[in-house]
Design brief:
A 7-stranded parallel β-sheet has the order 3-2-1-4-5-6-7, sandwiched between helices. The chain is of the alpha/beta class. The chain has 8 helices and 7 strands; from the N terminus they run βαβαβαβαβααβααβ. The longest helix has 29 residues. Bound molecules: NADPH dihydro-nicotinamide-adenine-dinucleotide phosphate. The site of NADPH dihydro-nicotinamide-adenine-dinucleotide phosphate has 30 residues, from helix 1 and strand 2.
Length: 242
């Protein structure tokens, strides 16, 4: 079977991406860290629609756990391939730089940026062997324009944008594309503390986006038809100036 691995696939944007890729015919591996209930719910939604989904719990910041879980999965699935990787797991821990604690910096860099390296290098091996792959990184408007109070998060997301462009050139000849999708304000647990009513005034479309509106673009990048798009960053932000 042809699998898609979605890190942080249990909730929010990751859930919508898992459902979208399942509808496109991929079996889905839903990674998560702690929210078993949400992960099971996503799996159930996919199965109710006739799709295939598996849960794979590991912390994307723990490189030993990443290696162990992915290698075990590969050993247990000798006939299967992970041809789509969506690096979506992420957190924000905002603070003005002068007040930012070491752990706020480190947690955000580890979860949003280092995880990209730990997970992608493991999946890349088999993509190179199979000579096909789609790597899609969920970044952010914050990584393009920078947002005050998010030096940690803007740094992490800008870092992945650089990595997307570099890796795209390394693996293009193997028919592997590497792209980034940069959402603006999307309704999810991550943004539930933000006031949509006051923030929507600056969004030309006049509202926060839905997770499904990000998932649609990820789905498109995963298609065969998107094979000439690589090293690109696609914004999904309702026209917010970037
Ligand atoms: P949510 O907070 O709704 O979901 C976060 C997901 O990441 C959950 O599935 C969570 O798992 C998982 N996760 C967090 N830490 C880890 C970890 N260490 N290891 C494995 N999984 C982990 O976030 P969103 O859906 O809003 O965000 C998804 C991505 O989109 C993130 O990269 C975010 O930065 C980006 N983004 C979001 C925007 C928005 O407005 N919402 C805007 C721009 C970018 P669990 O359920 O187990 O906790």
């Amino acid at each position: 079977m042809n699998y898609a691995l979605i890190t942080g696939g249990s909730r929010g944007i990751g859930r919508a991406i898992s459902i979208e890729l399942s509808k496109m015919g991929f079996a889905v591996i839903i990674n998560f860290i702690s929210n078993e209930a949400a992960a099971h719910e996503t799996k159930q939604i996919i199965e109710n629609q006739g799709g295939n989904a598996e849960l794979l719990k590991f912390d994307v910041t723990d490189k030993i756990a990443v290696d162990k879980n992915i290698e075990t999965w590969i050993t247990n699935h000798p006939e299967d391939t992970i041809s789509i990787l969506v690096n979506n797991a992420g957190i924000r821990q905002d603070a003005l730089m002068i007040f930012m604690q070491d752990e706020q910096w480190e947690n955000v860099i580890n979860t949003n940026l280092n995880s990209f390296f730990y997970v992608t290098r493991r999946i890349l091996k088999s993509m190179i062997t199979k000579r096909f792959g789609r790597i899609i990184n969920i970044v952010s408007l914050s990584g393009i324009k920078g947002l005050p109070g998010q030096t940690n998060y803007s740094t992490a997301k800008a870092g992945i944008i650089g990595a997307t462009k570099a890796l795209a050139q390394e693996v293009a000849s193997r028919k592997i594309t590497v792209n980034a999708v940069a959402p603006g304000f999307i309704i999810s647990d991550m943004t539930k503390d933000l006031d949509e009513n006051s923030l929507k005034a600056m969004i030309p479309v006049g509202r926060f986006g839905k997770p499904e509106e990000v998932a649609t673009v990820v789905g498109f990048l995963a298609t065969e038809g998107a094979s000439y798009i690589t090293g690109e960053v696609i914004s999904v932000n309702g026209g917010l100036y970037t």
